[in-house]
Amino acid sequence: LPLLARLYIRRKDVPSIDPKHRPAFRTKLELAVELLRWTKLWLGRLGKPLWVVADGAYAKAAFLKPVIASGVVVVSRLRKDAALWGVPGQRPAGKRGPNRKYGEHRIALAKRAGQKRGWQSGTFELYGKAVVKRYKTFLATWRPVGGVIRVVLVDEPKGWVAFFCTDPGASVADVLGLVADRFSLETCFRDVK
User: Fold this and answer.
1) How many alpha carbons lie under 13 Å from residue 106 in its C-beta half-sphere?
2) What does each C-alpha distance from 8 to 31, 55, 189 come to in angstroms?
3) Distance CA 102, CA 99 (A)
4) Tens digit of pLDDT for each residue in 30-73?
5) Among the four residues 15, 42, 54, 71, which has the most C-beta atoms within 10 Å?
6) Dihedral, CA of residue 103, residue 161, residue 71 and residue 127, to nearest 10
C-alpha cells in the first residue's frame, strides 16, 4: 500500500538546496528504515505481523538489521554469491560459552542450484493464476541478517534465482507469492516511464 514516501536527494545535491529547507543527507537504506518504522507504528496497532518485500538492493545489513529488530519480516532477492553458512547445532553438553550464531560450513548457492537432486515441483498462485515451479528450499545463516533465514532457489527458464525470508518458518508459497506481488510494482514503473 502506498502510504508515505520520502524524496531521496543525492549527497552532492544537498548543498544546492536553500539552507532554510535543506534536509540532512540520508541514504536510501536509512530512508527505507525510517519509513518502515513509521509504518510499524501505525500498522502495528492492528496486531498483525508486518512483512516487507524489498528489492535486492535493500538486502544489506544497514537496512535488514534495524528492520528485523523492529519485528518486521523481510523477503527479498538474494545475491548468487551471498556468503551463506549452515545452521549451527547446539553446543555439546559440558562445553562453556554461548551457542554459535553461524554454522561452520559455507553454503555455495551455485553448487546447491547445480545439484540435480533436491529439486521439488509445486503449484503456486502467482500473478493471479496457478503456476508450476521447480524449487529448492533450506535454512542458512547470513551475517547481514544476523541469524537464520529461509532460502528459496527457483529454477527459471533463464537460470536459477535465489530469494530469502527472515522468517525461517515461512513457506515457499509465502516467499514466491510475495515476490510475484512485488513484481507488479516493477510493471507499473515500466508502464509509467
Assistant:
1) 6
2) 8, 16, 17
3) 9
4) 999 998 888 888 887 888 888 999 988 999 999 999 999 999 99
5) 54
6) -150
| Cell numbers 515457499: residue | 172
Cell of 81: 554469491
Strand positions, DSSP E, the chain: 51-54, 73-78, 84-85, 106-107, 120-126, 129-142, 147-156, 159-165
* AA identity, residue 17: I
Burial 104-116 (b: 16+ CB within 10 A, else e): eeebebeebbeee
State the maximum Cα–Cα separation within the chain, in Å, rounded to a whole number. 64
pTM of the model: 0.85
